[in-house]
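Same chain as my last thread, 133 residues:
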Amino acid sequence: AAVPVYVAFLPKRYGYAFTSDKGGAFVGMSLGNVVRTFSDSPLWSPRTLAFLVPPALAGLAAVRRDAAVLLGGWLVVNSFFYSLAPNTYFQPRYLFAGLPALLVLIAAGLAGVVALLARKPFGPDPRFSGEGG
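reply #2:
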């Protein structure tokens, strides 16, 4: 019963290789891959994270606690788990599972900042400007 599935994936074995460049040994999950995932990745570089993380953190503060635990927890667990894999730095698609949670947190953070700024008037207070009487 599993033969059709095996035959279908047989030509695609190159996409699932868990070998290293040094002798073909299995390279499993490792904490050493975490830094490489976010420093050498063409998509999740430190510059990109510096742009995405602050509004997401503001979003964690803007949403209810249960939503923050759900969205933030999923984002952290997914990112950490897949950053342990050796091939994630050049295959960033594994981190896309956390992208919806990240986008929701960014939207909530931006909405929270706009709501906070809308409460306070900008510029000098007209009561102290010396105009009127």
